[in-house]
Structures are given as structure tokens and as C-alpha cells.
Amino acid sequence: xANANENDLALINKxxxxxxxxxxxxxxxxxxxxxxxxxxxxxxxxxxxSSKAEIADFTRKVLTPDLxxxxxxxxxxxVTMLSPEVAAVNVRQRPIHKDGxxxxxxxxxxxLYVLVKENGHxxxxxxxxxxxxxxxxxxxQGEIDARDxxx
Length: 151
Known about the structure:
The protein is built from 4 helices and 6 strands. The chain has helices spanning 6-24, 28-32, 52-62, 134-150, and strands spanning 35-42, 48-49, 71-83, 86-96, 112-118, 121-128. The protein has a single domain, classed as Roll (Nuclear Transport Factor 2, Chain: A), CATH 3.10.450. The protein is an alpha+beta fold.
């Protein structure tokens, strides 16, 4: 995990654990507490929110018990320190049932969070979630490989 100190890595992992907990407990308020007031967010489907107020309005409507038996496991995949107070964090987001078993047929997420350190605490300044489309990735790589083979 590139150039982050042990304390920052521990705090960043704790924040990502809080994202997981708040999402899985359907606690919109706990989730929203992790964001800076000027945060921006893009959902896995490309919907963009340009303020914490917009993020809050959306989150309070979707982060509810109506999600049913749909949860997620969040694991920090990579951290790049852009400065001592800014980190780019890649996360592996796996869809699971409440019992922890995988949800078959559901795509994983690959969020990128830009975290900002304020008064010793990391906050989400920006987030972009993306559904991992393995078939499309493999197809694209095959096309790249085929072009490279023509050289």
C-alpha cells in the first residue's frame, strides 16, 4: 500500500469498515457521517451527486430495510497517498447475503474513494463506484491482445 504510514492505513481501514457496517446495518446517518460537507459521489450506475445534501437525500431513500437480503463485504485493495492528507483508496466490494455467503449472479463493485484527512480523521471527499464487468474487461483485453499481435 503505497507510501502510507501504519497509523494512516489503520485509520483508512477503519473508515472502510465503517462504510461496510453502516451500509449493512442500513444506517443512512452513520454512512453520511463519513462524508465531508462538500463531498461528491457517483453511484455504480453513473448517477452523480455534487453535495452531501444530494448524497443524503438519495441515501435516505435507498439505504433502507427494503434492500432485503443484500449486503456487501468491503476490503481495502490498494491505497495511494496523493499527499499526507489525501488518499486514493481502491476497495473490493463483494455482494453477500446476511450470512456472509456470496450472492450468485451479482457483480462485484470496485469503488474508488478519495479520502481527506481532517483533524486526524479520514473523511470521504469523493467516491466513484463501478460494477466490475468481467466479461467486458476480458473482451476488451482480447481486442487489445489481438491488435498487439498484428504488430
